[in-house]
Amino acid sequence: MGNLETEAGKERRKDYIQQAVLSAVAVAGILALTAVAPNTLQLLGGFGRKKYRINYQTKTVLSRLVEKGYVRFAHKDGRKCVEITSAGKRAANLEIQLNAQRTHHPKKWDKRWRLVMFDIPERRKTDRDHLRRTMMEAGFQCFQDSVWVFPYDCEDLISLLKIDMHLGNAVRYAIVEKLENDAALRKYFKLGS
Questions:
Q1: Is the model's pTM score more than 0.70?
Q2: What percent of the chain has pLDDT over 70?
Q3: Assigned CATH for 106-188
Q4: 161 vs 189: CA distance, rounded Å
Q5: In the chain, what are the domain boundaries?
Q6: 98: left (phi over 0), alpha (psi -120 to 50) or beta
Q7: Residue 172 has what pLDDT?
Q8: What is the 3-state secondary structure (H, E, C) of the chain?
Q9: Cα–Cα dist 181/191, whole Å
């Protein structure tokens, strides 16, 4: 059990560093390779890491980002650079939406529930797990198998996830006025009656 938690923690740290590298490149659009690590370190706020370790992790992360198609290496003015791709811009926008979903909520709830329902086949189990993990990180609550609930507008986030993960109609978004037996959800989200 402890081993799984350790692996999950390592995966979250890798994701966090990957998002910081992608954000550093996204802000500039194109960034000299030598400037990526210092900008990443700045976005991570030091994060209690040694500079040489960040340099190594940044190179590893850059390789993964290139594999995913989020960035590409280019040459500008005789220097090797990292340039964000359109897929990288989508991924960076998705991260911005996720952060907004976690932190910015209206002062008053509109008394409408947002349901996200999905039916993703077993052959795409990795995508299904990634979607669940992303919704948990954004603050959604699992209502029942493959149905998640959120009290605030999240249509932009869900649209970006569907595009980014190529999920199409496998994911459905609904807004409902009334949800039977929602007292536990209201309590979870700290909503008034």
A1: no
A2: 75
A3: 3.30.70
A4: 22
A5: 2-84, 106-188
A6: alpha
A7: 95
A8: CHHHHHHHHHHHHHHHHHHHHHHHHHHHCEEEHHHHHHHHHHHCCCCCCCHHHHHHHHHHHHHHHHHHCCEEEEEECCEEEEEECHHHHHHHHHHHHHHHHHHCCCCCCCCCEEEEEECCCHHHHHHHHHHHHHHHHHCCEEEECCEEEECCCCHHHHHHHHHHHCCHHHEEEEEECCCCCCHHHHHHCCCCC
A9: 14
CATH for the 2-84 domain, from 3.40.50.1220, 3.30.70.2190, 2.40.50.140, 1.10.10.10: 1.10.10.10
DSSP track, 104-135: ---SS--S-EEEEEE---GGGHHHHHHHHHHH
Radius of gyration of the chain (CA): 19
Tokens of 142: 């699992």
Q: Which tokens hold the place of 166?
A: 């190529």
* 162-178 pLDDT per residue, tens: 988 889 999 999 999 99
**Model pLDDT for residues 80-120, shown as the tens digit of each residue:** 878 888 888 888 888 877 777 777 778 889 999 999 999 99
**Cβ(150)–Cβ(141) under 8 Å?**
yes
